[in-house]
Every structure is written in C-alpha cells, then in structure tokens.
Amino acid sequence: MTSASAADPKRWWALAVIALAQLMVILDGTIVNIALPSAQRALGMPDADRQWVITAYTLAFGGLLLLGGRIADLVGRKRAFVIGLAGFAVASALGGAAAGPGTLFAARALQGAFAAVLAPSALSLLTTTFTDPRERAKAFGVYGALAGGGSGAGLLVGGLLTEYLNWRWCLYVNVPVALAALIGAQVFLRDRSGRPGGHLDVPGVLLGSGGLVALVYGFSEAGPRGWTSPWVAAPLMAGVLLLAAFVWWQHRAAGPLLPLRIFRDRSRAGAFATMGLATIGMFGVFLFLTYYFQAVLGYPPVRTGLAFMPVSVGIVIGATQIAARLLPRTAPHTLMASGMVLAAAGMVLLSRLTVHAQYVPHVLPGLLLVGLGMGLTFMPVYATATVGVPTQDTGAASAALTTVQQIGASLGTVLLNTIATGATGRHSRAHGPADSGTALAEAMVHGFSVAYWCSAGVLLLAALVAALTVRRGKPSQAGSKPSA
Asked: Tens digits of per-residue pLDDT, 249-261?
C-alpha cells in the first residue's frame, strides 16, 4: 500500500515550511541574548528587570506547551500552525516597536504563548506527513538539526543584527519569516480537521500549565536569588504539587490534556528521559562559552556568534548526514548512546580550557564533538518519541517532548550556573583576593571547568538511560500492549 507521505507530492515542500517555522521558534530562544545589553540601554531597563526579556518568553513557552499541543489535536494541526505563526509575527512586531521595558516583556510573553501553539503543531505535522521509514528518517534529521543547532545560530544572527542594524531587528526579523511560512502553509500543508465534539480539559490546563510555569519561574529565579530564597523555594514546591495533582487528574479525566498512555511504552519513555538529560547537560555550554568568549577572550558580538557555529554545523552533520542515514538500519538506542558519549567527550575537552587558550586547537575540537553528539542523539529521539502515537494524540505527544526539552534547558542552565558560580567563589577564596583581571578570569574559567565535568556526567547518564530503555524497533501504539 502506498504510504501517506508518498501519496503527497508536496511533502518535501511541507518539510521546508515546517522547518522554517521551527527554526524561527528555536532562534528566538537565544537571538535576543547578545542584543540584550543594547536593548537595556535603549529602553532604560534596570539591571534587576533585564532577565525578564528572556524569562517572559521561556515562562510562556514552557508553561503553555501542553495546552498548545492539545489545541492542535482539537482544532487541527494545520489550523494551530497558522494561528501560531500569525500570532508570533504580531508579537514580534510589537516587541520590535517597544517604547519601554513593559511592552517588550509583554511582547516576549506573547511570543512564547504563540510558540507554544506553533512548536507542537509543527512536530505533529511532521509526524503525520512522513510515514515511510527512510523518508521519515530524513525529515527528522532536518528537524533534529534545527532543534539542536538553532540555538547556536540564534547567537550568530543576534550578533549580526545587533552590530550592523540594531537590537530591534532581532524581533522584526521574525515578521517576514513568519509571513513566508504562512504562505507556504496554505499552499503545501495537508491535514485533517480537528476532532469534532472534542473538549478541552480545563482542570488539566490549570494544573499542568500552572505547575510548569511555577517550575520554570523557580528555576529562572534560582540564579539571581539563590536556592534558599522563598521566591525560589515556594514556586518550585508549588510546581511539584501542581504537577503531582495534574498526573492524578490525568488518570481520571475523560479527555485528558496529556494522555498518560503515551508514556506506557518503554522506548518512548526512554526517549523522553534521554531528551531531558541531554538538554540539562547541553545548555550550560551556550551560557558559559558566551562569557568565556566575550569576558575572557575579548570577542565582540559577531565573533562570539561565529565561534558557536561549529556546534550548529556538527549538529546538522550528525542529524542529517549520519543519524538519518543510519536510523533505518540501526537501533535508535545505539545512535542515542553513542551521541551522548561523544558529547560528553566534547565537554571533557572544554573543561581543559584556560585563560590563554586558542580557539582552533583548544576550543574547536570540543565544540565539534558536542555538536556531532547532539545531532546523533536528537534525531532518533524525535523519531522514537513520536512514532506509533495515535493520530488524535500526536499534538499532545509532541508538546510533551518539547516541554521536556524546555524544562531540561531551564533546569540545566540554572543548575550548571549555580555549580560554576560556587566553584568560582571557592577558587577566588582559596587563591586570595582577585584584584587583577587575570585572577578574576582564572577563577571564572575554573568554575566553567567544574560545570563542564558535571555536564559530561549528565550526558553519560543520558547514554546509559538510552542504552537500557530504548529497544530496537519502533515504539508500540500508545495505549496498546508494547511489542516484545
């Protein structure tokens, strides 16, 4: 029988549209990082408030993903995709034109909310468009490359736009991209309508979204306030309690926001766990290396962005040229575990950096290994976590995977930053007062080194989880008896 993907002659154009939208969402997670100092000066933003340019986006995105995934299942994935694109474009224009910090914060929150609708609908459209195993591997190779490499590319694009135009173009750039994707969606995307008579699990929305928002907020405040602050402990405790209540409710709801049958298959659950651990271990790299390049090596914004490109290149090669070619005939756990071991080796190389290190002999090999490892991992994770899910649950499964990735990135950044900061402080106290710039840089690099070793440990744990839980072959249909 002809597969669904083979029956659609426009499926590769559909992939281009989905990839364009996904790249926009991933880029926006980091594109404003390098532009933040310029935006802060232009808008008169206090130091205490500047983190909200980042946090407003991550809070809305991470907190509303489950809702966005269920909306895609109920109203139709293509319709949700279009709504997300249009809203993201409007929010980006509003942020680019912001006259004050409050408007910029609100626009970033709106971007995150519409991204929470757009991202799961994009992944579920990819899942339902490509069903042939070889074509599916190629499609998910592209998607995995964008998901992993987009963050590094965002730093480069942000640096170029900030240095040669101004910080507002880090937001305005989304408008033409979203418009192009909107036109492509109308021409190339195919999808059945939503579920007639379906209803939204309102208690699940309140419990799940509330718990995720509380967790992301707590993680984001842990860096500046410390783990013992009530502004950190209270949201984290509330998040855990709300999510526990959410799981309890999902067992009883007639139309759950997140059908727990999705996680009954061991391979699928293992893929989710691998993604969470991988993002915890990976996302400290961008934070630490941004400071290392600029504060220690003295790189300007554009050069900093260019220095990250080997990570993105490595992810693209690992996902599209290696994993996509091997997955049809290689067990997914082999690719995932191998990728995590490679990435861990890259972290060990980065842990050896000093204040006098040179980019090509000392930094570049570690970045390439991290990129290749992540590309080898992300592609089979996306394919394994979404294959075999019933059509009516693809939006929820896609949203859950993106949520795990988002929570892992937030938790990893905070945990690794806390470890690095503590190690920096101990180094300074052990070696006397850091009166010179060199002493400060040495203490900072020591902190980064300790954090890289911790990242390597987390990535090796991810390799172990993938090797032990993800079986050969595709996961069983959610809710059905797993295959042997």
From this structure: 998 888 888 888 8
